[in-house]
Inverse folding.
């Protein structure tokens, strides 16, 4: 999301072309009226200049982490806050650690003309396969030249979705290498003083390697609940209820049947939005309705 960055010029265009800017857009945001509490919680922590500079949103597959990442990015853009966003995808092994830091460097160049000279000086070495070197050339060294008087609350927020999907499925050595190099550079980022001024929001599954990179001593953990951690009176269940009710209404189901279906589906979803989505595809809803007419009357 670079809508509010300075317009491109020839020098900038050449620099971006040399660095390479290839990324996937963030996924769709949360449905309006859902995840209100947790989004406000995340936003408050981002705006807390005295809190940890890393906010880790973690949870099991299907709980809506990607939607949260997109929603928080949209909210901050609406408030005129600069956002640098990036998304990994397990089905795309070309989206790697190098791709991430190149995209971040391009957005920094768009936002801060003063960084362009420093970035341009490293062009000769941008073909290096050494991820540590690339991180220094593209991120660490340029940002060391940034005006330190810029308030932290005016610096861009970096949003990285699906951190655990770096390198694709990671079923081979190269995928695992990409993932490990990502963790090394992220750890390096948390140890450099001038990089600590930037807030970083990441989403992923609760993997142990990521937990070691972002321990609670240096990061703020927000767990999206699912399974037995979700109770019917929780906001997670209420969000699922809102989501399902909207889908069923859109599909034209009778209101009397919607209430019956919600009584069955909301507890079954246990906070997992993808389960709720799949259960309300037309085929599944039709099947459920036919069974319900026999067993719920």
């Amino acid at each position: 999301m670079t809508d509010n960055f300075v317009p491109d010029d020839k020098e900038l265009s050449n620099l971006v072309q040399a660095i390479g800017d290839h990324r996937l857009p963030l996924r769709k945001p949360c449905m309006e009226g859902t995840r209100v509490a947790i989004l406000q919680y995340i936003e408050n922590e981002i705006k807390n200049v005295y809190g940890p500079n890393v906010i880790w949103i973690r949870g099991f597959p299907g709980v809506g982490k990607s939607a949260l990442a997109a929603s928080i990015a949209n909210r901050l853009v609406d408030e005129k806050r600069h956002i640098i966003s990036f998304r990994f995808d397990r089905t795309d092994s070309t989206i790697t650690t190098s791709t991430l830091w190149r995209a971040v460097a391009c957005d920094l160049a768009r936002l801060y003309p003063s960084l362009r000279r420093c970035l341009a000086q490293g062009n000769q070495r941008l073909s290096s396969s050494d991820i540590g070197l690339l991180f220094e050339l593209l991120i660490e060294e340029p940002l060391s030249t940034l005006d330190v008087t810029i308030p932290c609350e005016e610096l861009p927020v970096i949003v990285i979705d699906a951190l655990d999907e770096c390198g694709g499925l990671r079923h081979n050595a190269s995928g695992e290498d990409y993932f490990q190099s990502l963790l090394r550079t992220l750890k390096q980022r948390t140890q450099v003083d001038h990089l600590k001024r930037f807030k970083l929001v990441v989403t992923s599954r609760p993997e142990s390697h990521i937990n070691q990179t972002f321990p609670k001593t240096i990061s703020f953990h927000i767990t999206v609940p699912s399974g037995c951690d979700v109770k019917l009176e929780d906001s997670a269940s209420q969000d699922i209820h809102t989501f399902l009710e909207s889908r069923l209404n859109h599909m034209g189901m009778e209101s009397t049947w919607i209430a019956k279906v919600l009584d069955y589906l909301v507890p079954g979803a246990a906070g997992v939005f993808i389960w709720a989505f799949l259960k309300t595809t037309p085929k599944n809803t039709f099947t459920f309705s036919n069974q319900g007419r026999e067993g719920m009357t």
In short: The radius of gyration is 22 Å. Residues 173-189 form the longest helix (17 residues).
